[in-house]
Write the structure tokens for this entry.
Amino acid sequence: MNEVALQVKSLTKEFGSLTAVDNLSLEVYRGEIFGFLGPNGAGKTTSIRMMCGLLEPDSGEVIFQGGKLVGICPQETILWEKLTCLEQLEFIGEMYNLPAKLARQRGDELLSILGLEEKRHNLASTLSGGMKRRLNLALALIHDPEILVLDEPEAGLDPQSRLLVREYIRSLAQKKTIILTTHNMDEAERMADRVAIIDHGKLLVTDTPEALKRTIGEGDVLEIEILSIPVEQALAIIQPDFPDIQVEGNNYFIRAGGIMEKMSSLFDAIKKAGGEIGEVHLRANTLEDVFISLTGRRLRQ
Amino acid sequence: MRIWSVIRKCAREQKRDLWVLGLSLVFAPLFVFIYWLFTGGNATTSYAALVINHDEAARFSDGVMHNAGEDVILAMQELTFKDGSPILRVSSISDRDLGETALRDRDATLLVIIPPSFSQTLANAQSGAAEPTTQVEFIGDLTNPYYTVAAVMAMTALDGYAVDATGEYRAVSLLETALGDSAARTEFEMYIPGLLVLAVIMMLFQAAMLVARDIESGSLQRLKITRLTAFEYLSGTTAWLALIAIAEVLLTFAVAVAFGFRSHGALWVAILVGVITSLSIIGVGMIVASLSKTVSQAFVIANFPFGFFMFLSGAAFPIPMNRLFTIAERDIKIIDVLPPTHAVAALNKVFTLEVGLSGVLYELTALSVLSVIYFSVGVWLFRKRHLN
Ligand SMILES: Nc1ncnc2c1ncn2[C@@H]1O[C@H](COP(=O)(O)OP(=O)(O)OP(=O)(O)O)[C@@H](O)[C@H]1O
Ligand SMILES: [Mg+2]
């Protein structure tokens, strides 16, 4: 499965003094779902726009091995407001040189897959926000591209539609190469075969979600908010038992195996020292923790 | 004060769209400047008058042989404005058909024909013989607003000379021959060509804004990855707009005719002129769209070609222009790059001066060439700026 579909070499893009994408190199394999994960402004959109040829890079290149037929679902919803759902799918299909009949048929298919069959003859301007997002996605798929580039495909969708879209994208994955961007670690974790984490335009790591999580150690994460005592004091209490700890403001991210058993004695120690315990979360390792360990910041504030 | 906040918000937005602000501010001053250029600043307009002098010299009472026709031509040339520049640009020609063609093409304003007996009649008047008066013919397109001025000036020269020579005011009578149907046009009919051209010029905005909408919404980005070419995109758009233009031209004519408009020449020729004009206007619209990023930008930019078309092409009022060079006996002027120039000339010829297809071939050719040029420039610019 490690046949390269797309090779990105040293892509760089500057906007004035800001380096939006900094020397990005990576390979995307045929048939995989490749996820770009990073916070707002990390350079995800800029990267994929350059990969699709929509934006001229300052330097670097993108090499397609084999098929070059790309479908892109942009981050902003771009529709022809005065065309119906089906009309615009037909139109863009014909622009990809599909015969009119096939374009219509595929358009109909996509609309029902994405839960828009009832709206096929409605103007795009009359759709709800989430429906527009789904139509936006359908427009990228009409010509059955070999490489599918999706910029935040789940943005603006309710949980039900999100599931719908997720399942559909997953079902495409075997046949197509899919590149998607997200700032949602959950989405990246569930969807992507491999994830590239980027921040400030720089690629930090690329690997499978499992491998990435393994790099930061096994076990659970305890996220605990400690108030009323200074950080140094809190650390002095926690660190002897839990050496793997990250601090962000009043939030402490503690990683260790079998935290459950040790939790109550830790809480007691903190209270005894005059600390107050705010919010507490106990969870399994996520890509968020990977991001925190790489950057010292959380993905979402 | 929320009004103050609104003002400040407007100012800030405008500041970030300096290009549009600049264009809006520059519009009127630019046209003041262009009018100054075209009218030569404080120079005055001179009207082109053609003279066919059939006069045969005769002996006047002073015993000298005079060709009074020549003298009248001199007198016409000597009419000047206060600053000394001539009012009439007088040229002698020998062929009436050639003269009428020049009038139709508005290369000349007035054609004067002096009869063979002109000198003899004046000589007879000097000696007191009760001769019939001599008849000088003035020919012109009465729908040409400059005709009246030129005719009055020429008449002044003519009468002045005759009265000087004979003291007999009535020795010269005037026969005014209206070119084509120009004497019979109603005021309503005079407005129709201008209105028609205006309707076609307005296509400029529609064309530019239709394309700019796809640019502004980002849908052009979608089309870009389908590898749609600028030529395909703009051709398709132009074809649709041309259909609208045809409907518009037909509708305008239908209404005009229903209310009593008469065309002397074939109406279908006028329709053809309207349609080809619209193609060239749409071509200019494509150039405007290529230069725009948003619909409102397209609107502001479109005002410039619109201004040129309205004010400088003769659609609204005539513009005196000197020729740049001559091709195949045609005087080429700067304003010939403006499609409405040819449209106005051609429509006037068809409606008033009874010409058929052959009479407007030059204009049709010019319009077609301009359409191709503007469209090609539009495609080139569009490819460069939007579908690269
Ligand atoms: N056209 C532009 N002009 C100037 N700066 C830009 C432009 N496009 C993007 N940027 C900047 O480049 C950086 C990366 O932007 P980009 O859109 O790639 O981020 P992103 O990772 O897609 O973020 P998000 O998750 O918010 O979509 C940002 O700082 C952004 O402000
Ligand atoms: Mg983005």
